[in-house]
Amino acid sequence: MPKRVLIQLDCDPQPSTFDAIVAVDAGADVLLRHGGVTPEAAVPLLHGGMFTRGGGDLASTAIFIGGSDVAAAEAVARRVAKTFFGPVRMGVLVDPSGANTTAAAAVVAALRHLSSGGQPARAVVLGGTGPVGQRVGRLLARKGMQVTLGSRSLDRAEATARTLAEQVPGPQIRGIASSGGVTAGSPLAEVLATADLVVAAGAAGAVLLDAAGREAAASARVLIDLNAVPPAGIHGIVAGDKARADGRQLLYGALGVGGTKMKIHRAAIERIFAQPDAFLDAEELLAIGEAIG
């Protein structure tokens, strides 16, 4: 059996150490780490993996695409998909900035507590135009929820909502400005008042839902804060919260979601070696997370 070789294509100058360690823990025998990867530079690196092992041995080579620039990583992923042909392909995991695994883990946590029957659940995603927020919104919409994306910029929120609506027809997806905070009659106050789920997916250390916001979201069943850096993104949540009850609400912090994220990440690495035609993006990672439970 050939050694399991993972080709790490990272768009940053230095490939992520975090991603490399997770890959080793998930069973990769050899890491070929490449930084500063562009779509054009990815092609010869792919050819090196595609044409050195034949038949079933090719399954022991796989691709991880990462980096902090999500758009750049997605451009590399599109080029990778176009480079494969016929049976000459390798399993691929796309997870720039951990956005896909984090979003999948957050949605897995939410779905544990929100019934899929009856009226569609209503979700508010704060920081909804960022890499993680967009994916959380997309995955929730695919589950049939009504999704509101909050952003400091109304234009960005509405543009992102339109893009997601094109990708996920059917559920209602809208964008609102959240920069004004929770004031009487504000769009944010109105959507929080009827929300079943609130997810904060903003930048590290950014408070997206303060004490007044928590009061406005009193009807929400689940609150998830994906920010691990103090202060909390949602007032009253600590990083280690994992379905902690606070009145009628269940609270999740970044570390409470992080355990599921790591399980998804490791399982995804195993999948791309076991299934050479696997191409794992957010939706596929959510399916893995739901299977893990």
3D structure, described in words:
It is a single chain. This protein is an alpha/beta fold and 293 residues long. The protein has ten helices and twelve strands. It folds into two domains: 5-98 and 260-292, Rossmann fold (3-Layer(aba) Sandwich), CATH 3.40.50.10280; 102-257, NAD(P)-binding Rossmann-like Domain (Rossmann fold). The strands form two sheets. A seven-stranded mixed β-sheet has the order 7-6-5-8-9-11-10, sandwiched between helices. The longest helix has 21 residues, at 254-274.
Short description:
The protein is α/β, with parallel strands linked by helices. Helices cover 41% and strands 19% of the residues. The chain folds into two domains: 5-98 and 260-292, Methylene-tetrahydromethanopterin dehydrogenase, N-terminal domain (Rossmann fold, 3-Layer(aba) Sandwich); 102-257, Rossmann fold (3-Layer(aba) Sandwich).
Poorly predicted runs of 5 or more residues: none
Percent range of helical residues: 40-55%
User: Rg to the nearest angstrom?
Assistant: 20 Å
Number of helices: 10
Query: Averaged pLDDT, please?
Result: 94
Give the strand order, joined by hyphens, for the main sheet.
7-6-5-8-9-11-10
CATH architectural arrangement of the largest domain: 3-Layer(aba) Sandwich
Head-to-tail CA distance between termini: 31 Å
Helices and strands, in order, run as EHEHEHEHEHEHEHEHEEEHEH
CATH names the topology of the largest domain as: Rossmann fold
Structural class: alpha/beta
Oligomeric state of shown chains? single chain
Q: Please tell me the total number of domains.
A: 2
What is the CATH level 1 assignment of the largest domain? Alpha Beta
Largest sheet geometry: 7 strands, mixed
Proportion of residues in extended strands: 15-25%
The coarse overall form would be elongated
Total DSSP E strands: 12
Fourth-tier CATH superfamily name of the largest domain: NAD(P)-binding Rossmann-like Domain
